[in-house]
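Kindly inspect this chain:
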Amino acid sequence: MNNANSVKTRKLVLLAVLTAVIVVLQVITQFIKPGFFPITLSLTPIIVGAALCGAGAGAFLGFVFSVMALLDPATGAFLAVSIPGTVITVILKGTLAGFVSGLVYRLLEKKNEYVAAVGAGIVSPLVNTGIFFIGCLVFFADYCVQVGESVGLSGSVFYMITTLFIGANFFIELAVNVVLSGVIVMLVKNGRKILKLAK
């Protein structure tokens, strides 16, 4: 029983550390904006937490990331258009990105830890960006077109969203996660030793 309590305590400490890392990364990335929004480097610690502690932990860390994203000044423009639409979109995209990456990691790690890390690393930005895209279509289609036209673009709402609001960010986030997949595996292995959960 004491061992179970010890593991729970260590998991809580790990989640606290990863939460702090996410907060710091979100602050740092405010200064890295290849497009309308800063890039998201917080997906990597979310994946590590989801791999070590499960999809629920990934969802929690994704929620923390989402709350930080709501505080981003760039999100203010969306809040001015629709507060409920912004909150729903931002909270869902981060929370589900963490949750789904945890599920994918658990599913694939039985075959290979590197494949699991790459799979989770691909799925996390896909879910994050995919839900953002859907949120833009549902809540902000007119706004996205107006912003595009104000900078001299013309085309469909799909084009405006992908060009202005997603742009290079998605590809940078995807590349960072795939490149760091080996680091993710190393962190998960070391984390399991610390948690005494090594296979």
